[in-house]
Amino acid sequence: MSEDERVYGVVLNHEEQYSIWLVDRDLPAGWRYEGTRGPKQACLDRIDEVWTDMRPKSLRDRMAAGA
């Protein structure tokens, strides 16, 4: 199997949930680019670095309001 040489981008939705997406494809509704682009592993590494709280933003906000 050959190495994946496609270019990916880190994307996130309104709930601040992260994923990767091939940059040559249209983004699905509700998703936007975070700014990181490159090899798949670099994008996955970026997600590991920044997505430290897996709870959706709406849940984090509700919990913070109730604290």
Write a structural description.
By secondary structure, this protein is an alpha+beta fold. The chain has one domain (8-66): Alpha-Beta Complex (Rubredoxin-like), CATH 3.90.820.10. The chain contains two helices and three strands, in the order βββαα. It has helices spanning 40-50, 57-66; strands spanning 8-13, 18-22, 31-38. Strands 2-1-3 form a three-stranded antiparallel β-sheet, covered by helices on one side. Strand 1 and strand 2 (18-22) form a beta hairpin.
Per-chain topology:
Layout: E1 8-13, E2 18-22, E3 31-38, H1 40-50, H2 57-66
Antiparallel strand pairs: 1-2, 1-3
Features:
alpha+beta, Rubredoxin-like, 3-stranded antiparallel beta sheet, 2 helices, 3 strands, elongated
Can you summarize this structure?
The protein has 67 residues and is an alpha+beta fold. Helix content is 31%, strand content 28%. It has a 3-stranded antiparallel beta sheet with strand order 2-1-3, with helices on one face.
